[in-house]
Amino acid sequence: KRGCDLIVVPYNTSSETIMSFHPDGVMLSNGPGNPEDLPEVLDTIRELIPQTVVFGICLGHQLISLACGAKTYKLKFGHRGGNHPVINLTNGTIEITSQNHGYAVDGTTIDPAIAKEAFINVNDGTNEGLAYEGKNIFTVQFHPEACPGPQDSGYLFDKFIEMMGGQK
Fold first, then answer.
1. Out of 4, 117, 145, 147, which one is annotated catalytic?
2. From the CA atom positions of the chain, what is the Rg in Å?
């Protein structure tokens, strides 16, 4: 819809292989399970961060957070379905989001020199996204591709494209 060419690779693809495609950016997408079960991915993420723009969604958000030193934990009750209100701490607006996850990033373990909380879940105060300091990274826990409200978070894809240099 936004005119991007996509190359999809498995989670265990090396940073060298990913960068051999000369991407304008890398998106780490959603997926199932405990992010701590994928420690082999963290070094790849650390290698990608200085080389390109990185956008993390859901599991991608959690993995980038782990790679940057934060911790994750299992939620007592996972966030499932649509209509989850999230506050955007940048502008104070509430976005209605779609969510499907059982783990969350522990906001108290985020080094403020690395990232700051950018989104918070209105219902339970859990972290819903980070803005990274001095890096071309941003992450969200929710699913902006699901367009639940009706398109509250679609602007995040435009932000990603802008960070990659805009439409070419």
1. 145
2. 15
**61, 79, 101, 143: which one is catalytic?**
143
Q: Are 95 and 75 in contact (CB under 8 A)?
A: no
Distance from the Cα of residue 36 to its chain's centroid: 16
DSSP codes, 44-102: HHHHHTTTSEEEEETHHHHHHHHHTT--EEEEEEEEEEEEEEEEETTT--EEEEEEEEE
Catalytic annotation on 22? no
Q: Copy the structure tokens of residue 158.
A: 């435009």
**pTM, rounded to two decimals:** 0.89
| 113-145: pLDDT as tens digits | 999 999 999 999 999 999 999 999 999 999 887
Whether 58 is catalytic: yes
Q: Is 143 a catalytic residue?
A: yes
Note the pLDDT tens digit of each residue in 51-62. 999 999 999 999
Choosing from 58, 68, 95, 128, the catalytic residue is: 58
Helix (H/G/I), strand (E/B), else coil: 23: coil
- 110/118 Cα distance (integer angstroms): 12
